[in-house]
Each structure stands twice: as C-alpha cells, then as structure tokens.
Design a protein that fits this description.
The complex is a heterodimer of chains A (192) and B (904).
Chain A lengths: L1 H12 L6 H10 L2 H11 L18 H5 L10 H8 L9 H10 L6 H12 L9 H12 L5 H15 L9 H8 L5 H4 L5
Chain B lengths: L1 H26 L14 H16 L6 H17 L4 H20 L1 H29 L3 H26 L5 H26 L4 H20 L7 H22 L3 H17 L13 H4 L5 H5 L3 H4 L21 H30 L10 H8 L8 H26 L4 H38 L7 H4 L1 H21 L6 H60 L20 H38 L15 E3 L1 H18 L5 H24 E3 L11 H24 L17 H10 L2 H10 L2 H63 L18 H5 L17 H19 L34
Parallel strand pairs in B: 1-2
Classes of the chains: A mainly alpha (192), B mainly alpha (904).
C-alpha cells in the first residue's frame, strides 16, 4: 500500500516520481518484525501472531496515542487520523507501518512534506486555511498566546507562504515553503 | 587557561618523574623485600600467583603443576569455546578432588573456600582501586573484559552443569565462578603490573601482604594459644594496613612520588626554607587566625597561592626546570591561548550563522510548521519545547509589532539623549565612589588592623558588589525611557552593565597602581637599609674576627627584614575581589531567589493579595546577566592569575560549585525572564564582549610586566631589573649564540616596524577581499531572487489567464477554440505586488537552468495536474467576463487579503 501511496502522491502533486530506491529504502528502513512487535505489544489480546490470512484488526486511537513515541506529541491525534484508513485514528497494521515509514529518517522529503501537510490540515479540505493554522498554533503553544497574537501570527504565515494569494495554503505552497526549512527533515521524524 | 597552566606543569612534572623515579622506587619497597624473590617477568609472577591461589584452593595439595595446567586449559577453553573431552575429564578430576576434600573435612574446606573467596575479592578490589587512581582508559576495558569472561564462564558453567548430574550442579557453578574471578583478577593484575617499575619488589611485597592476609583469615583455625593468636593478628593487621595503603599495588606509591615531585617542581623549596616562604616573626602569632586567613594574610599570603612564594632560582632539580622563565611564559601564554580560543570560536560562530539568506522570508511559517520536534518522547522535554516555542513566537510577534510602530521621532531622540545622560552620570558616580573607597581603604591599611571594623576592612569589596547589584536594575529603569526595540535595548543594557563593571575594575586598578608605586618607594628604602646593614655586618665581622672569610649572617628566615611584596598584594586584592564576588553571587541567589521563593510560595496561603502573580512573584532567571557575570569573572581571573596563580584553582572550584548551585536554584525557585529575547541570536555578541574583556585585562598585566620593577626579595623575578629579563637571560645563557643574534635582529625596531606595516597591509587586503565577496554574494542573491520572481510571474500570469480564458471560452459559443499560449497574456498589475514572493520552483535540481522553452514545457506539464486539482475548489469571485486583458481579475486577487474562501 505504501508504494501505491507514493505513486499516487507523485501524480497528485505533479512532481517527478521519487526514485524507486527511495521507496525501497522506506520499506527496508523498518524491518517489519520489530514494528510488528511494537504494534502487537499495544494489544496482545487483539493482534494475532499469524498475519497470513490478513485478519482485519484495528487498534483504537487510545492505544496508538499512548505509545511513548506519540504521547507527548501535540499532533498525535492528527497523525493517527491521517495515517489510519478510516480517518478516525484506528489503525490496522498496514496503517501503522505506513505511519512509521513516513516518519522514518529514510523517507524522502516530498513524502514527509505531503503527510505533514495532511497532519496540519485539520478539516481535511486539502488547504491550510486560517482555522487550521490557528489550531496548529494553539496546539504548539498550549493556548498561551492571546487571540490577537494568534490572529496576527496566522496572518503573517499566510502572508509569507501563500503564493497564489487565495488566502490559504495549498499543498504546493506548503511544499515550496518546506523545502526551504532547514529543520524540517530533522524534526519531522520519529525514531522507533 | 587553567588547563594550559596545569598541562604545562604536568608535562614538566611527568618528565621529571620519568627521570627520577628509579631511585625513589628502589628505596620504598625494600622493607617488603624480605623474601628476596625477584620475579622479573610478568608471566612468572602471574604463574606464581596462580600457583598460590591453587594452593589456597585445595586444602590438600596434590600436584600444583597439574592444577596449573588445568586452569590454563580451562581458560583456553573459555576463549576458544571448544568442548574437549580431555578438559572435561580433567574437570571431573577436579571435582572429585573437591569432593574428597569435602569428605575429609567439609567444615574446614568450606571455611577455607570462603577465605579464599574473600581474599580474591579483596585482591581484585585493590587492583581496581589502584587502577582507578591511575585513571587510565584501559581500566574500563579490562574490567569489561573481566566481566565478559565472567559472564561467559558463568553461562558455560550452567550449560555444563545441565549436562551433568543435578547433584553436582551447585558445586560446579561455584567452581566456575571462582575460576572466573581468578581469570578476571589475573587479567587485571596483568594490566596493573604492566608498567610498574620494579616488578620484583612489588611482587614480593604483594606476596607478603597476601600471606599475612591469609594468615589473618585462617588464624582462627590455628591450634595456638589465644595470646599468641592475638599478637600475631595485631602484627599482621598492622603490616597489611601499612603496606596496602602505601602500596596500592604499586600505583599509590607512584602517585605519591608524582605528587612530591610536582610539588617540588612547582614550588621549589618547601615552606619555611627561605624568607619569602616564611611568615615573618611579627605576624606568626596571628598567622593561623581565621580572620587573618580570611583576608588571605598569614600563612595564606606566604603560600603557593601567591606570586611572592616562588623562588628566583634559575633552575630546579635534575631536569633544570626553569621556574622563573616558565612562570613568565605561562603567564603570557595564557593570554595568547585565550585570545586564540576566543577568536577561533568567534570565527566558527560567524561561519555557522553565515547563510541566513532565506531566513527572513518564512519566519513565522517555519516556526509554525517545523518547530515541533517529533522525536520528543518525554513529558519534561515536551514542556520545555512548548515553552521555547511560545517564547520564540512571542519574540517574533514583538519584533513584528516593533517594526510596524512609528512614532514621534523628536521626542524619542530627546528621551534617548536624556537616558544616556543619566546613565553616564551613574557610571561616573560609581567610578568616583570606587576610587574614593579604594583610597580610603589604603588609609585604613596604614592604621592598626585591630582597630578597624569588618566594614572598614572590606569596604572596597562591599561597595563594588553593591554597585553591581544596584546599578543594572537602575539602568533597566532608565532604559525604558528610550523605547528601543527589545533586542537592541537588551544589547544597550548589557553594554552599560559591562561599562559599569569595567569602569569599576579600572578605577580599582588605578587606585591599586598608586598603592604599588608607594610600595615600590618603600621597598627601595628597605632594600637600601638591608644592604647597608649587611655591609655593616661584614665590616664588623672582619674587624672582630680578623678574617676575610665571612660566613653569611645566620638569621632565621622568619626574622629577615623584607620589603612589601607588591605583586603578592595585588594578587591578594584580586583574590579578595573574586571571593567577595562569589559570596555576593551566592548570597543573592540564596536570599533573592530561594528565600523569596519560599516566602512567596508558602505565605501565599494567608496573604491579602496573590503573591505569586502579584508584587514579589518569583525571581527571574536573567540569562544575559548571568553570562555577563561569567565574562566579568573571567576577566578578573585573567588579570589576577599572574600575581596569584592559585586564583585559577579557586575559580575552577567556584565555577564547578556554582554550576550545580545555580542549576538547583533555577530549577527550584526561578521563573523564566519576562523579556522574551535571548540577547542575540549569534553568540558572537557575548564572545565579542569576552574578547574586549580579554584585551582590557591583558593591558594592565602586560603593562606591569614591561614597566614595573619586580620586588627584590620575593617572587620568581626577584633581583632582576625587569621581569622579561628572564627571557634575555635564557637566550644568552642557554641557547646557542646565533639564536641570540637572531633575537637581537628581530627586536630591532627597523624590522618590527616593517613587519607591523606588512600585517596592516595584509589586514587591509583581506578586508577588501572579504567585502568584495560579500558584494558578490549579495549580487548573486539578488539575481536568484529576480529569477524566481520572473518564473513566478510567468506562472501566475498563465494561471490567471488560463482561468480567465476558461471563462471566456465558456462564454464563447464555439467551444473548440484552442487555449491561447501563455505568452500572449499580458501581466496583470498585481504582478508587481507579488514580485516580492517566491514563485513555485520546480523541484528537480537539473531544472535550475532556465532554458526558456524547456521551462515552459515543464510548466505546462506541471500545470496539468494542478488545474485538475483546482477543480475541487469552488471558483472564487471573478471580474466580469470580457475583462480578461484588463487589470486584476477580481477583488479576491489582491494580496491574498481578500475575503477568505467560504470553504474554510
């Protein structure tokens, strides 16, 4: 599913396909057994050891969000929602693998940027509009900024990154901005 | 800089040790050399030890050599992981032996075993201790190896035991463990003895100690009378204690020798040998008083801590350690080294902060989307991260607000001038106050010390510390008049505090120089009197005894008349200053932070208003102020270290303790500073201050070294006209003549001036080139920006025209019209506005070169999916159809500030 995701994403965003070695790397960078163990450890009574007949097992968000890697992340719910097939944060093993491969060190920048965009897009409308930005900001600062400050920051962000002047950030705008960010690759990754 | 001093001295000491240790080491252990056994090689010794262990292991000794073999075999097996039948056989034999032992006297054997175990444990402990003292890296490695072996053998033992009967299990394990212990201890013993100097003696000594220990352990079983047993026990214990402690398996002794030699090299003769190292008779009664020591008088004054203690003997010891020369070179070298380090750090910092080209564009965006570190998996770290993100947002917000402000410039100017006037006044006032106080303290110093109160004695330090405490908040209050941008205001504030510190320090220095000059006069007088006295003595002696062979006057060192050693006095002043600084800092933290926090926290339950949020609140941790304090402290050390070498050690202690102390204070009773700005993004601001401080503290030291004559009866330069004469002396006496010649040429002004000129020219040239590069850099950046703008405009035009065209096409009855090429569309006038933005750039690195045709094609191909994606969004408000060639298509097209899309 990961491969198809990457290819889909390539077509959608209009970029040249990421080279296949990247895809391979993404897949190889996490030896599934270890990740599978982590997945299974979350709920040993739910997850069977044998996956040959593709059992339909979903772990609820409460379990996923309580992983030590995620539990302190202000965006944990969004992460789970974005990567889960049902959009509710309940994850199958495949979703789980997808999540950690995208967040791995080896994942290509474009893929990461795409998913980062999805994570910050709270209302799933494929654009980061003001309400998304406000939510992001409030999560980042734990609501410690005043309303005026929040509004101002959001305006500034749109002012800075909005290239086509439609008052919201499209995926393109986001990508354009994120390739220039020095810390994006180093911060948008989870080691498991 | 402390490092430099220490390493230099250590190096010297190390060389000295190597040369002189053989005689020392042969002297010490002769007491233990009774056995006369001289095991020369390691293997022999190890073998011996093993044999002894095996002796101990068995109560009934069969054949020691065979057992040795067995043990070796086992060890080999362990290493090779091979199970050989033969070895197992031998093991079984071993077991049988053990069993037989048990059968014979289970009690005795058990006890024996215990004892053996104890001994071996003790052994390994000792060895470890010795090694730790040595502080080698190999220690940990060896230990690890030992542990590994132990583990391995343990595991093996288990597996073996499985194969064998259950009955033998415990036995087997026990044995294995023992073996492991032996192997580990023997391996560590190997490494421990590897580089000790006299193997034989140490081995003999060790053996003896071990024997005695064994005796102690087994004394109970001996069939002797109690009296004899007790006596023997006491003897043995005394022996073991004596040699174990002193020996430390050879390392302790070495360390001891090292220490002795270090002390010898550093200080030459010990305390009390010559006048400068002895407390004068008049002061001896009080030399150990606490109050005197607290002022660094008495024994402190005549100790290693200060300049005066060091002797002027040209060379010390076998290696001819030149103390005066190295004193001077280290003193000056510290400055050179520090300069180098500071400048290198600055260069590195500016390198790192070099490429900030794009940064200004996405300040807020980057902060929003890339500041959270997804790696964070720890609630405390997360809390800190939240706080730091909030701070950085606030910082940017304030920055932005300040940028947008515009105000009455005349009023502002007037207020700024006024504020600076106030601050200059207070700076001048504080300078005068310090000068006044120092002068007064000099008058006090001439009075009897007993009549003075504590305040009168410590007035200078108290006043300086108080000024340091009061002035910064005052400056901050005044600075509010100026209404600078917070970052700039902070810099001003730091600069002012800095000026205050430096001004105070320099006033203090000038007052000190007056004092020094006075002392120099006094010394001249005393010197003349001494010379006159000596002459008298010689004349009297020769007339009285009628001989020309006159022995020097036999005066005890405590009674010799000596001048005031101004260098030591200067050193004492600096040490006192540092100590009072430490006291004030610590007390401020204790009272201003801790007590305040306690009061605020606990009185808050029963108070009229909210103490935590209201007036006293908790103390703030002022990072910049603390950094400035560190810098200032470093400056004092730089200044004082030449005249008080002990100051370096004192400061190291202070820094270490204050690190933990302040860490505790910050964690427990401080809140973050309200000012959200972190002084500056680059550390170079502070490094620049440090450089300035270094330079300013270098000046007085070098000035005194070059101009003032050193005291005639104390310090390493006594008897010379100038301190730097030591260098001349060395060049003349110790180096070949041609080097002296070279030096004379090199010091010729005719050569120095051209050299300086050359350097100035080089600096000029480098400066010019760097400016050129900077310009080129800017130019390139601008070109890049322009290229991006161009591309973006093209893209935007196309998009907009495409949309407009789309509408047009929709209006036209004939739908089969081909869409017009992109070039046809005229740029709408919002283009100029948008010019400041970056266009979307194709990701491919190869696409950087803008060949027009290719680019265009790519744009088209890239645009295709976009246009498809654009279908999902509802069409925005547009201008009336037919307006395609006119100005902006609609109200929503301006700068993206139009009404937001309804979808959001």
């Amino acid at each position: 599913s990961l491969k198809s995701l990457i290819i889909l994403f390539d077509i959608e965003s209009g970029y040249y396909p990421v080279c296949t070695s990247d895809i391979l790397q993404v897949q190889l960078s996490f030896p599934p057994p270890r990740l599978f163990d982590r997945y299974r450890d979350l709920a040993p009574q739910l997850v069977p050891l044998d996956y040959t007949d593709q059992p339909d097992v979903r772990l609820p968000y409460e379990l996923i969000g309580s992983m030590p890697e995620l539990k302190d992340n202000p965006f944990r719910q969004r992460i789970a929602e974005v990567f889960s097939e049902d959009g509710e944060g309940n994850m199958t093993l495949d979703d789980f693998l997808d999540m950690f491969s995208v967040l791995s060190e080896m994942a290509p920048r474009d893929l990461k940027a795409y998913y980062a965009f999805k994570i910050y897009d709270f209302n799933n409308d494929d654009f980061l509009c003001k309400s998304d930005l406000e939510k992001t900001l409030n999560k980042l600062t734990r609501n410690e900024l005043t309303e005026d400050e929040v509004r101002m920051v959001c305006e500034k962000v749109i002012d800075e990154a909005d290239l086509d002047n439609d008052g919201r950030l499209s995926l393109e705008d986001f990508q354009h901005m994120i390739v220039r960010a020095p810390d994006f690759l180093s911060t948008f990754h989870i080691r498991i | 800089m402390a490092m430099l001093l220490v390493t230099l001295l250590l190096n010297a000491a190390a060389i000295y040790t190597i040369v002189t240790i053989p005689p020392l080491s042969t002297v010490a252990p002769s007491a233990g050399g009774r056995n006369g056994k001289q095991a020369t090689s390691e293997e022999e010794e190890e073998d011996e030890a093993q044999r002894k262990r095996s002796h101990k292991k068995k109560a009934k000794v069969q054949d020691s050599e065979e057992e040795d073999e067995e043990e070796e075999d086992e060890a080999q097996r362990k290493r090779a992981h091979k199970k050989k039948a033969k070895v197992q056989d031998s093991e079984e034999e071993d077991e049988e032996e053990e069993k037989s032992v048990k059968r014979k006297g289970p009690k005795a054997a058990g006890r024996n075993k215990k004892a053996v175990k104890q001994v071996s444990e003790e052994e390994s402990e000792e060895e470890e201790r010795g090694k730790k003292r040595k502080g080698r890296k190999s220690t940990s490695k060896n230990q690890k190896e030992g542990q590994n072996k132990e583990k391995k053998s343990d595991a093996k033992g288990k597996s073996d035991a499985k194969g064998k009967g259950v009955k033998d299990k415990g036995n087997e394990k026990d044995k294995k463990k023992k073996n492991a212990k032996y192997s580990s201890s023997s391996s560590s013993g190997e490494s421990g003895d590897e580089d000790s100097l006299s193997e034989g003696e140490i081995a003999a000594q060790k053996e003896e100690v071990e024997e005695k220990k064994k005796l102690i352990a087994t004394l109970r079983n001996k069939p002797w009378r109690m009296k004899r047993r007790l006596k023997l026990l006491k003897e043995c214990q005394a022996f073991v204690e004596k040699f174990e402690g002193a020996l430390g398996k050879g390392k302790g002794r070495k360390l001891y020798a090292y220490k002795v030699i270090m002390a010898k090299v550093m200080m030459g003769l010990p305390y009390g040998s010559i006048p400068r190292k002895t407390v004068p008779r008049a002061q001896q009664a009080k030399a150990m008083d606490y109050s005197v020591l607290l002022d660094f008088g008495g024994y402190c004054k005549y100790s290693v801590l200060f300049y005066g203690y060091y002797n002027d003997e040209r060379t010390i010891g076998l290696l001819q350690f030149r103390l005066p020369l190295s004193y001077l070179l280290v003193g000056v070298g510290i400055f050179g080294y520090s300069l180098m380090v500071v400048i290198r750090t600055m260069a590195r910092n500016s390198d790192e902060g070099g490429d900030g080209g794009d940064d200004g564009q996405f300040t807020f965006t980057f902060k929003m989307f890339t500041s959270w570190d997804y790696l964070i998996g720890n609630p405390e770290t997360a809390d800190n991260k939240y706080a730091s993100i909030t701070t950085s947002f606030k910082e940017s917000i304030v920055d932005e607000q300040e940028n947008q402000k515009d105000e009455n410039i005349h009023l502002r100017r007037f207020l700024r001038v006024l504020a600076n006037l106030f601050i200059l006044c207070s700076l001048g006032g504080s300078g005068f106050l310090i000068y006044f106080v120092v002068k007064r303290s000099q008058d006090f110093a001439k009075l009897d010390q007993n009549t003075l109160s504590w305040y009168e004695k410590n007035e200078v330090e108290v006043v300086m510390s108080l000024l340091g405490l009061v002035c910064p908040p005052l400056f901050e209050t005044i600075a509010e008049l100026e209404e600078y941008h917070p970052r700039i205001a902070l810099k001003w504030q730091l600069g002012r505090i800095f000026a205050l510190f430096l001004g105070n320090l320099y006033t203090f220095l000038f007052a000190l120089f007056d004092d020094v000059n006075e002392k120099l006069e006094q010394e001249k007088y005393i010197k003349n009197a001494t010379i006159w006295g000596l002459k008298e003595y010689y004349a009297n002696y020769s007339t009285f005894h009628n001989t020309t062979d006159i022995p020097p006057p036999d005066i005890p060192p405590a009674d010799v008349i000596r001048g005031p050693c101004w260098e030591t006095d200067v050193g004492i002043e600096f040490v006192k200053l540092t100590v009072s600084d430490i006291q004030v800092t610590y007390l401020t933290i204790l009272i201003g932070d801790f007590v305040r926090a306690v009061i605020v926290r606990f009185l808050n339950y029963c108070w009229c208003w909210d103490l935590e949020a209201g007036f006293p609140s908790y103390g703030e941790f002022d990072i910049s102020g603390n950094v400035l304090g560190l810098i200032f402290n470093q400056g004092m050390i730089w200044m004082g270290a030449f005249y008080a070498p002990g100051l370096v050690g004192l400061n190291v202690l202070r820094l270490l303790s204050s690190m933990y102390y302040q860490c505790w204070a910050v964690m427990s009773c401080n809140v973050p500073h309200e000012r959200v700005f972190k002084a500056s993004k680059s550390n170079n601001f502070y490094m620049g201050l440090l450089l300035l401080v270094l330079f300013l503290s270098l000046l007085p030291v070098v000035y005194t070294i070059m101009t003032l004559p050193p005291s005639s009866d104390c310090g390493p330069f006594s008897g010379r006209a100038q301190m730097y004469d030591v260098v001349m002396e060395t060049i003349e006496k110790d180096l070949p003549a041609f080097i002296g010649n070279i030096f004379t040429y090199a010091t010729n002004p005719g050569l120095i001036i051209p050299a300086v000129l050359l350097m100035v020219l080089a600096i000029y040239y480098l400066n010019a080139t760097s400016k050129n590069y900077q310009n080129a850099n800017l130019e390139l950046k601008r070109k890049m920006q322009m290229a991006r703008d161009e591309e973006k405009n093209r893209r935007n035009n196309k998009e907009s025209t495409n949309q407009v065209m789309h509408d047009l096409v929709g209006l036209l009855p004939n739908r089969s019209l081909i869409p017009p090429p992109a070039e046809e569309a005229p740029p709408p006038d919002n283009m100029s506005e948008k010019g400041s933005k970056f266009p979307k750039v194709a990701k491919r690195p190869g696409a950087a070169d803008n060949v027009k045709g290719v680019n265009l094609q790519k744009d088209v191909s890239l645009a295709a999916p976009n246009s498809r994606g654009a279908v999902t969004r509802p069409p925005g408000p547009r201008g009336p159809p037919g307006n395609a060639r006119g100005p902006p298509p609609g109200p929503g097209r301006g700068r993206g500030r139009g009404a937001p899309r309804p979808k959001c």
